[in-house]
Amino acid sequence: MKKFCLALDLKDDPELIQEYERYHQSENAWPEVTQSILSSGITGMEIYRTGNRLFMIMETKDDFDFSLKEEMDRNNAKVMEWEALMSQFQLPLSWSAENEKWVPMDRIFTLVPA
Questions:
Q1: Which of 13, 43, 52, 80 is deepest in the core (most CB within 10 A)?
Q2: Cα–Cα distance, 51 to 45 (Å, whole number)
Q3: Angle, helix 77-87 to helix 66-74, in steps of 10 degrees
Q4: How confident is the model at residue 68 (pLDDT cuts 50, 70, 90)?
């Protein structure tokens, strides 16, 4: 299993943030999008928020590949519709690459109990 942590900002507008969170409640999940996530090799996903900063933790199969996930997304009309809808709420981080939404985070500390 692999674990990835990613960050993204939301537009700093309380109403937009509330709407974004509403879309992400489990009862509002689009089944085509959640199926796409699982089909790509992602086995678990959590998103946390503080202020307008989002933090995602993804657990994946060992052979998970971001490039393959991006290709699968581009070929899935419902995922592309979801991404277009979500982009109205999202702001790329100032250091993100062009067309990059979620930016991978570097682990800087690990505590392993003895």
A1: 52
A2: 20
A3: 100
A4: very high
- Matching residue, tokens 């959590």: 46
Does residue 114 have a pLDDT over 90?
A: no
pLDDT score at 99: 86
Q: Which amino acid is at 94?
A: S
Q: If DSSP states are collapsed to H, E and C, what string results for the chain?
A: CEEEEEEEEECCCHHHHHHHHHHCCHHHCCHHHHHHHHHCCEEEEEEEEECCEEEEEEEECCCCCHHHHHHHHHCCHHHHHHHHHHHCCEECCCCCCCCCCCEECCCCCCCCCC
What is the token pair recorded at 43? 């086995």
CB 47 within 8 A of CB 56: yes
Predicted model pTM: 0.90
Q: Give dist(CA 32, CA 10) in Å, integer.
A: 23
